[in-house]
Task: inverse folding
């Protein structure tokens, strides 16, 4: 198809538009390091105003970073998708000055729903938290008029599901 966008180009366009409108992520200093269909990597540095009374990063800040990565991953197909639920397990504390990175990956999609796992690590690769998000697709597009890519999630999803079932 002449002029058709790849899934990667669609993911990049969606991420750029989301970040432009994402006041919360920018206020936290969250930056988008990488985007791909169903996957993202975002990071932030723990600031003074993110540290709690125990002298460690507040769990809500870590959750917010993981939630951002989850959101960018599940919206990478230009289909407006929101969180239906999420949980997080904190495994190590993060400290003032730590550079935290959240790596989000799509695990499964079916119809309008999806499951995404996000691993949060510090600058040394130490695991800080494990987050699981459940997504629900609603009406609308991230970039109105962009449509879906030529190799969209809809055509790739059955193949991914089949591969997972064979493992």
Result:
């Amino acid at each position: 198809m002449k002029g058709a966008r790849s899934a990667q180009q669609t993911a990049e366009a969606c991420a750029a538009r989301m970040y432009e409108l994402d006041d919360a992520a920018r206020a936290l200093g969250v930056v988008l390091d990488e985007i791909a269909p169903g996957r993202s990597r975002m990071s932030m540095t723990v600031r003074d105003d993110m540290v709690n009374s125990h002298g460690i990063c507040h769990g809500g800040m870590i959750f917010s970073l993981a939630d951002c990565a989850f959101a960018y991953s599940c919206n990478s197909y230009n289909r407006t998708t929101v969180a239906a639920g999420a949980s997080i397990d904190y495994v190590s504390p993060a400290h003032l000055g730590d550079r935290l990175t959240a790596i989000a990956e799509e695990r499964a999609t079916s119809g309008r729903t999806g499951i995404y796992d996000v691993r949060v690590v510090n600058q040394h690769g130490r695991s800080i938290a494990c987050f699981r998000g459940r997504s629900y697709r609603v009406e609308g597009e991230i970039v109105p008029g962009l449509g879906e890519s030529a190799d969209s999630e809809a055509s790739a999803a059955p193949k991914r599901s089949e591969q997972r079932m064979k493992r």
